[in-house]
Design goal:
- The chain is of the alpha/beta class and 388 residues long.
- It has two domains: 133 residues, Alpha/Beta hydrolase fold, catalytic domain (Rossmann fold, 3-Layer(aba) Sandwich); 193 residues, Jelly Rolls.
- Helices cover 18% and strands 24% of the residues.
- Strands 7, 8, 9, 10, 12, 17 and 20 form a seven-stranded mixed sheet that branches. A six-stranded mixed sheet has the order 1-2-3-4-5-6, sandwiched between helices. A three-stranded antiparallel sheet has the order 15-14-19, with no helix packed on it.
């Protein structure tokens, strides 16, 4: 294409989802004419987000690829490579690949959605892209969306890097994000937000009287004290809550009050002022697996807004995380997986799906819902903490 008479020798690529994934893989091959990519809701490293999230086996969405014209063999081939082996590495754009793409002078306009299940990959790619020739837009959507002003920004980006249009894109703020709660767009100098303030909160015994859970614990700035709360999980029996994001509707919004009675929660006091949580939060818990299980997974965390003093109120999911504690994924595909013994008590830390959300004054945050996905383990709140 670059050699055609109507082309100036510079090539750009644009498109969402699979068309965005192909941009990262093409750029990885270092074609000299490729000057700009505009991937939207696209993961360069899809192994842990599409195929084996937190070590889980592929779900029905991946299996449905067998019915996609041209991709009929994708599922059968992929499940033969359970581990992150050389076969996968050829088909992924990992951090060194992204850095190399940036080093070759390619410009990248990356966009994703707050409720899109592969958005963490968009954000990580932006962070790994070690160049000033980058831009990020984070919209309030799930997978498969388009908005007019994003298309305008994408065209401006392409015009500048392909046609030398003097349209100011290099002087514009690098990050555009939508903040839920106040429901407005905002620009930032970079991501993660440079002036974000971190706070450490501890999960401990207490009674918020806002939710009918097993422990109704508290989340405060004081060091944890009092009795710990422990919850066992049995594969196939739970307890469990739906946490994974849907491609079409994003976060689940069903009534989970019955399931909440079987899990652990910790809640803040009513917020005295409106409080924004934008960026990466981390949750640490004590966890241990029992003998005879091959793997175990950390619970998912769910900050939610709630109604003070109303245990029957519905809560809206704001973020989540999944974590595998003891299965190695870096072994060759044909390596026999060892049968792991009891996993000693440890304190793994999970990075939550980054929200951009303002909690209204007077609301309370319910930061943790226990949702392990496989294996058998217990979690405990003793000295556990959450940082955000």
């Amino acid at each position: 294409m670059a050699k055609q008479a109507w082309c100036n020798g510079r090539i750009g690529m644009i498109g969402p989802s699979l068309l965005g994934i192909s941009q990262w893989l093409t750029a990885k091959e270092a074609p000299p004419s490729l000057k700009v990519i505009v991937p939207q809701v696209a993961c360069g490293n899809c192994y842990g987000l599409l195929w084996y999230p937190a070590g889980m086996t592929p779900g029905p969405g991946r299996e449905a690829r067998k019915l996609s014209p041209g991709a009929e063999a994708e599922y059968a081939t992929s499940v033969q490579h359970r581990n992150l082996d050389g076969w996968w590495r050829e088909r992924l754009t990992l951090a060194p690949d992204v850095k190399a793409i940036a080093g070759r002078g390619v410009a990248a306009f990356i966009s994703g959605g707050l409720d899109d299940y592969i958005s963490p990959a968009n954000l990580r790619a932006y962070e790994q892209f070690d160049s000033n020739r980058k831009r990020l837009l984070f919209a309030p959507h799930a997978h498969g969306w388009q908005i007019d002003f994003l298309q305008e920004l994408q065209v401006q980006w392409l015009d500048h890097w392909l046609k030398d249009a003097d349209n100011g894109v290099e002087q514009a703020p690098k990050v555009i994000l939508f903040v839920k709660g106040v429901d407005r767009w905002r620009t930032e100098a970079d991501w993660p937000i440079p002036d974000a303030r971190m706070a450490t909160l501890f999960l401990q015994a207490g009674h918020s009287q806002t939710i009918d859970s097993l422990n109704d614990g508290a989340m405060t700035a004081q060091q944890a004290s009092g009795a710990s709360a422990t919850l066992p999980y049995v594969p196939g029996a739970g307890p469990a809550l739906p946490v994974l994001l849907s491609a079409t509707v994003g976060r689940p919004d069903g009534d989970q009050r019955e399931a909440e009675t079987k899990v652990l929660t910790w809640t803040t006091a009513p917020l005295p002022v409106a409080t924004e949580v934008t960026g990466y939060s981390h949750v640490s818990l004590w966890a241990a697996s029992r003998p005879g299980r091959c793997r175990s997974r950390r619970p998912s965390a769910h900050p939610r807004s709630g109604v003070p003093g109303n245990p029957g109120a519905l809560r809206q999911q704001a973020t989540h995380a999944t974590r595998q504690t003891n299965r190695r994924l870096d072994q060759p595909a044909n390596a026999e997986q060892p049968r792991l013994n009891a996993n000693p008590v440890q304190e793994p830390t999970s990075c939550l799906f980054p929200p951009a959300l303002v909690f209204a004054a007077g609301s309370r945050r319910h930061p943790l819902r226990h949702v392990p996905w496989a294996g058998s383990h217990c979690i405990s709140s003793r000295n556990a903490k959450t940082a955000q």
